[in-house]
From TrEMBL:
A single BP term in Gene Ontology: endoplasmic reticulum to Golgi vesicle-mediated transport
Keyword Membrane: yes
Lineage: Eukaryota, Fungi, Dikarya, Ascomycota, Pezizomycotina
Entry's Gene Ontology cellular component terms: COPII-coated ER to Golgi transport vesicle; endoplasmic reticulum membrane; endoplasmic reticulum-Golgi intermediate compartment; Golgi membrane
Name of the protein in question: L-type lectin-like domain-containing protein
Ranges for region Disordered: 317-338
Source species, domain of life: Eukaryota
Coarse class of the protein's main subcellular location: membrane
Amino acid sequence: MSAHPCAFVSSSIVEVGFFSFFFYSILSSASSITCAPGSLGIAGISERIVRHCATMLFASSWAAVCLLAASLTGVSARSGGLTEDPDIKAISLRTHSLEPPYLDSDMQSRWWDFGGDTIIRTDKYIRLASDKPSRDGWIFSRVPLTATNWEILVEFKIHGQGNLFGDGFAMWLTKQRAQPGNVFGHTDHFEGLGVFFDTYKNNRPGTVFPYVMAMNGDGKTSYDKGNDGKANEVAGCSARGIRNPQIATKARLTYFQDKYLRLELQYKAEDEWTQCFEIPKFKVPPVAYLGFSAETGELSDNHDIISIKSHNLYQKNPGGNTAGTSGSSAPKSGSSMTREKEGGSWTWFLVKFVMFGLALTGLYVGYTVYRTRQRDRF
């Protein structure tokens, strides 16, 4: 299995950069040394050049070590989750991702449809339902999500002015798409997965709201709206703090076919993820549309989607191949073997740099000894 070509390209660029900088320093030092007639001569000039180069080599070596350490520790600005797992290859799904400005130059979206009372502010958010009574809106992908294993990271914001508020929003992976209805703005009797971020408590004693739950719709069963989905719940958790948050609130939904469906939430602190649920052997329809919807009744709130980032996940199997959407083998840029090869290329660069430094140091020491002997002779 070969390493990702970018690893070798990046190390080569840095290598060329360091050596170019070093030799440029040599030339600069030579050109900057001036001496009066009879003051230093060739020997003095050579000594200054060698000393200057040794100093530059020391500084450059420290820079190389720092850069190498950063590369080997995997410094990155990604969002975490399985996309950071060294045994998982994550491929971004542009067709199921959405970020500002949301729309193209024609004020349309190539991969998403919008409807209802949805408001799009291209620099900030997609507001599914505003803080006004009797509002509902939705967004749905135009093409189905057919990946076998995937991860969807959603940044959202539920906020408003009043102390009484409702109703919440939903995340969908269903065979139906863009069908308005009375289940958080989407149609009832759906077939597939519904994840409900319910902020208003109708009739569910002993449960703290806001409450997040999953329902596996069979296309026939109605959502138990009067009891906040109690009869339909597959798994769920209380999430007090997702409304009017002090930080960016996020949900990370991860699915591995025939293994599990997991939901994690970030609402307490930055980069602090709380597992809401993990359902073993959960089955999402192999062809399902990704969507979001929200509704308000007599009570209201702003329900905003900030961004959606979806990834197709490939996991290394015991045989050493990767299993993904098509089941075919593919190089894994995040695999352990690739990371070793990337580290190997950096290590070889560092070894060459150190060897070069030792050679130059030996040259300097030898030259110093030679000058001392020459001085002693006379």
